[in-house]
Amino acid sequence: MCGQSVFELICSSCFLHIEFNKEYIFYHAVSGETHFLNATGASILKRLSASPARIEDLLDFLDGNRARPSCSYENLKILLERFEELGIIKCNYPSKC
């Protein structure tokens, strides 16, 4: 997988989540913070709880689940960077080949 970053949850067992009125509430036990997410953000975290993924895999997943078919590569990249800043996910950058 040379040249492609892989994203994963830092602690998949550290999350509690519920859906309420098409809004998603995630409690991050490590930080003690609660996050209110839209369908796209919630879908990404649920997908990453199953296994690590490349950004291309996440785009395919979103398109297949119709969580938000109009999610662009750039918007997803921004969302993933924000999750990383919050300490929710980490990005495993590949070594150079």
UniProtKB/TrEMBL annotation:
InterPro entries: PqqD-rel_X (IPR027599). This is HPr-rel-A system PqqD family peptide chaperone. It comes from Allochromatium palmeri. The lineage of its organism: Bacteria, Pseudomonadati, Pseudomonadota, Gammaproteobacteria, Chromatiales.
